[in-house]
Specification:
Blueprint lengths: L14 E7 L2 H13 L4 E4 L5 E3 L4 E8 L4 E4 L9 E6 L4 H10 L2 E2 L13 H5 L2 E2 L2 E2 L4 E8 L4 E6 L18 E12 L11 H7 L9 H14 L13 E4 L5 E3 H4 L8 E3 L7 E3 L1 H4 L9 E3 L6 E4 L1 H7 L14 E2 L6 E3 L7 H19 L8 E3 L4
Parallel strand pairs: 1-4, 2-4, 3-21
Antiparallel strand pairs: 5-6, 6-12, 7-12, 8-9, 10-11, 10-12, 13-20, 14-18, 15-18, 16-17, 19-20
C-alpha cells in the first residue's frame, strides 16, 4: 500500500504491512499482535497531519476506519447536556456537520478541519477561537503497554497548545471519544471569540450566531486560505498549518518589531513560597506564605507573520522542488505541483525554519507528525 494515497499531502512511500481496521476489535488485535511479535507499528487516521517519508514505513501500518456517532443519555442540569460517543475513525468534519444539523453547539468553529475524530484530541485541535478541549469529556483508549482498554477523563490527558500526553509519548490508541455539547432552542453558537470570524458574520466578538451560519462562515474562511480539502484547489494538497504559533517569554517578545502580532497567554495562578530567612526565625509550622518573585509571562506569536517577514512569500519554492508555500497562506506547505516528495517538503520546512531563526531568533516547530523522515 502506497501511503501517499492516504495522506492529504499526497506524499509517502509504501507500508511494509498494511491493515485497515473497521472495528475496535480489529484495531486492538492488530496493534497488540504487532507488539507481541516485536513488529514496529504505526496507526494512521485521516492522514491530514502527518508527513511520511519517501521510503515508507517499516513494519505495520494500521488505518483506523471505525465509524459511528452514538447519542448517549443527556446529563440534566449541565450547561452542556448533550453527550455523544464517536468512534475514532469517524470523519471529524462529518461529526461537526452532524452536530450543527442537530442544533448542538460547541464544535461549529472547528468546521472544515480534515482528519479523523480519534486524532483530534491527540493534536488538541482548535480554530477561530474554539478549542476541542471545551467539549471533550473523555477518551476510551487502548493502553498499549498494559494491553488494557480504559476510559481517561479529559483533565488527565495533558492537553496543551496543539499537544497532549499521547502526542508527547504516551503509548495509547484512541478507540472512541466522548463529547459534551450545548443545546439551545434557537440553535445558536457559543459566543464568537475570534475577531475575523465575528467580522465575517457581521457581529461583535462575544455575540452568538446561528450554528449553520457559523459553520458556513468558517468553511468560507478556511477555503479562502486553502485549508479545506478540495479536489479543484491544488493548494489544499497540504497538511494544513505546518508550523505552530511560537510561544515565547514577554521579555523576548519585547525585542521583536512592534508590529509583530502577539497574544499574551493566560498566566497560571501565582505560586506561593516560604522565605528561607523567615523559616530560620519563626517556629516550624508558622512560616508566612509569600508570593514568589513575578515570573516573566508568555506571549503567543504569529508564525505566519514571522515567515512572511523573514522573506518567504506565498507561492515560494526552492529551485527544482515540487513543494511550495501555498499561494493562499504562508503557514501551509503544499504539494500543489502534484510531484513533490516528502524530502522536498522537509527541505522547504527546514529552509523556512532557518530563515525565521536567522531573522528573529525564533524556532518554528512543525505541527504534523513525522514518520520515517526528520527535519
Amino acid at each position: 500500500m502506497l501511503l501517499a494515497q492516504l495522506t492529504t499531502l499526497r506524499v509517502g512511500g509504501p507500508a511494509e504491512r498494511f491493515v485497515e481496521a473497521n472495528t475496535v476489535n480489529e484495531l486492538v488485535d492488530a496493534v497488540l499482535d504487532a507488539e507481541v511479535h516485536g513488529e514496529p507499528w504505526f496507526v494512521l487516521g485521516g492522514g491530514s497531519n502527518v508527513l511520511i517519508g519517501d521510503d515508507g514505513v517499516v513494519g505495520l501500518v494500521v488505518r483506523v476506519a471505525t465509524s459511528g456517532i452514538e447519542r448517549l443519555p443527556d446529563v440534566s442540569g449541565s450547561p452542556r447536556p448533550v453527550r455523544l460517543r464517536v468512534q475514532a475513525g469517524e470523519s471529524w468534519d462529518a461529526l461537526v456537520e452532524h452536530t450543527v444539523r442537530n442544533g448542538w453547539g460547541g464544535m461549529e468553529a472547528l468546521s472544515g478541519i480534515p482528519g479523523s475524530t480519534g486524532a483530534a484530541p491527540i493534536q488538541n485541535i482548535g480554530a477561530y477561537g474554539q478549542e476541542l478541549g471545551e467539549s471533550l469529556v473523555s477518551l476510551h483508549v487502548l493502553d498499549v503497554d498494559s494491553g488494557e482498554q480504559r476510559t481517561v477523563p479529559a483533565p488527565e490527558l495533558g492537553l496543551g497548545y496543539r499537544t497532549s500526553a499521547i502526542k508527547q509519548g504516551w503509548r495509547a490508541i484512541v478507540l472512541s471519544v466522548d463529547f459534551a455539547l450545548e443545546r439551545t432552542d434557537d440553535a445558536v453558537s457559543r459566543p464568537i471569540a475570534y475577531a475575523q470570524l465575528a467580522d465575517s458574520l457581521g457581529i461583535a466578538v462575544g455575540e452568538r450566531a446561528p450554528l449553520a451560519g457559523v459553520r458556513a462562515a468558517v468553511l468560507a474562511l478556511r477555503a479562502s486560505k486553502g485549508m479545506v480539502l478540495d479536489t479543484h484547489d491544488p493548494y489544499s494538497v497540504s497538511a494544513g498549518s505546518f508550523f505552530t504559533n511560537p510561544i515565547v517569554s514577554e521579555s523576548f517578545a519585547r525585542g521583536l518589531p512592534v508590529e509583530a502580532p502577539r497574544w499574551p497567554q493566560q498566566p497560571d495562578e501565582p505560586a506561593l513560597a516560604v522565605s528561607l530567612a523567615a523559616s530560620l526565625t519563626v517556629p516550624l509550622g508558622h512560616e508566612p506564605a509569600a508570593p514568589l518573585e513575578p515570573v516573566d509571562g508568555t506571549v503567543k506569536l504569529s508564525a505566519a507573520w514571522l515567515i512572511e517577514h523573514a522573506g518567504i512569500t506565498r507561492g515560494f519554492a526552492l529551485p527544482g522542488s515540487g513543494a511550495s508555500v501555498s499561494q493562499k497562506h504562508t503557514l501551509a506547505l503544499t504539494n500543489a505541483s502534484g510531484h513533490a516528495s516528502a524530502a522536498d517538503v522537509a527541505e522547504l520546512a527546514r529552509y523556512i525554519q532557518i530563515r525565521v531563526m536567522s531573522q528573529f531568533g525564533v524556532t518554528l516547530h512543525p505541527e504534523p507528525v513525522f514518520v520515517g523522515i526528520a527535519l
